[in-house]
Structure formats: C-alpha cells, structure tokens
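REQUEST ID: PR-0412
SUBMITTED BY: lab tech R.K.
PRIORITY: routine
TASK: structure prediction, single protein chain
INPUT:
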Amino acid sequence: MDKTDDLIERALSAEDRALLAHHGEPGYIPQALGLFRGPQGWVGVLAYVTALAAFAGFAFAFWQLWTAHDMLAAVKWGVVALLLFQYSAMMKTFMGTRVEANRMLRELKRVELQVALLRESAATDRNAAR
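STATUS: complete
OUTPUT:
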C-alpha cells in the first residue's frame, strides 16, 4: 500500500471498512465468469465461443501443416493456422480488457457508495443539529 491508501484507510469508519471488506475485490475466476453476465454478457459468450472455435481450427490447421507432404499445401495450412491463432489471441486480449473495464466500474461504484454514505451521514448530522 502507498500513503494514499493508508490515509483512506484511516479516514474510514468501522462501518465503512466492514462494508468495503464485504464488497472486496473478487478473484480472477469470478471476474472472468462476470464477462458472461449482465446486459453485455452475450458479447462475452460470443467472443469466447469464437475464440474456442478459432483455436480448434488452429489446432486442425497446424496438424495439417505438420503432416503436409506438399510445400504449397504446407504454406497454405501454415497461413490458415497463423491467422486462426492470431484471432484466438486477439479475442483473449479483448476479453482481458473487458475484465479490466469491469474492475474499473466496480471501483467507481465503490466511490459512489462512499459518496452516498458521506452524503447520508452529513444529512443525519444536519438533522441532529436542528
């Protein structure tokens, strides 16, 4: 942790700490599975299915490349294998950026929660002062 995290930790009340601990950072597997939920879940499913299909096609094309006896056929299968592998890697990168975007949205929601708690406590203090 750096100094800013320490200052934030000291500024939080016990209730805030408990609330943030309850809504802590999920592990990698729940984050990855979160790609398939929500209003954009179908995009994650589509990307995952096409990445799996591309990787299966890559494996087949690579096997054909490996067993080819003709140089021209080997080059053709090699190009197909390369393109399918690149597509599979691109989809993995796309899904990784979505995981990071979801992490940022989660952090923004935490900040919104803290602002709402501060606003609520300020309103409670004003009402108690009257």
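NOTES: Residues 39-115 form one domain.
REVIEWED BY: pending
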